[in-house]
């Protein structure tokens, strides 16, 4: 399946339109949301496509100049940069770019939906998403489990309970063959979405939306998840933001949570336990999704742009950490954050909160020389769109279960050589 062109010569992707207009993909979504450009979806394809003729005419009216370096139509980097390092062929960072199986993650985030990126991580090839639709019995079990939990439970608490339930309900969980593991993996994200309370009224309880479309699987995962994060109905720009977040957080190389997941897999733990190990480490307040929880919490201390400097100074005076800045694995600002913050600015959230986020980023950059990381962008998304406390953790875990499973498969199939298990003791 091509990731670089639409099915007809006059149909182009968001990324290609950005190249023609000399802007970034987030700006194209802003044009669409303002009615300046129109987009459409083709049968069985949830991505947004634009008319090349309309975009070229819009570019002429604006006097736009194409990007000096056009967006690459091929997401694959030169072989020297895209060669997998020792230890994993799933994901890694090279030349300050995050790669999934050698493909640029930021390019994937604006052109390929999460379900297809999950297939790329699991199989090495971009293919139509095959996330499972939950059967009625499993759906009821998840709902009963969630109903028994305290109302104060954080989203991550609910996902952990569902991971345990999925393992207990799968009599073949110790079948560690690739087909069995991937079958389990394709249930994880839909089950985790089902675990979160429904905040919008646009879904029925059978996994279909009000128009009768299946919302459990494939490209509709972002649509269904959005209704569990905020009651506000999503437009294209909001779904573009959430879809990009799911893709960009699906994998990040051999970070702490992934090392924990691989250690679990190296001891032949079942895939549900592997994911539990990963999410337990990712929930730490010093890294991963847990940091997004801290970011959301301290951003909520700020009620106006004028209060930004005072709140930051007060936090430093108390010795509190200003979470969400700096990413030691890159020599440049975290490219995931840069893209997500652009998409966030175009997503029409609360305008005052968006201005607060912009002011915070500017203040920290000016005074401390630090750029925001992906965890800040995730916490800022929750803040700007009024999501429940801890929603960022849920987004990260739902996304990252694709990467954790891909690494688990490497461990399960490990032989002496570059993919040998990290430990067998």
TrEMBL record:
Belongs to the citrate synthase family. It is an enzyme of class 2 (transferase). Its EC number is 2.3.3.16. Keywords: Transferase. Residues 13-62 form the Helix-turn-helix domain. It holds the Pfam family HTH_17. Pathway: Carbohydrate metabolism; tricarboxylic acid cycle. Transmembrane segments: none annotated. This is citrate synthase (unknown stereospecificity).
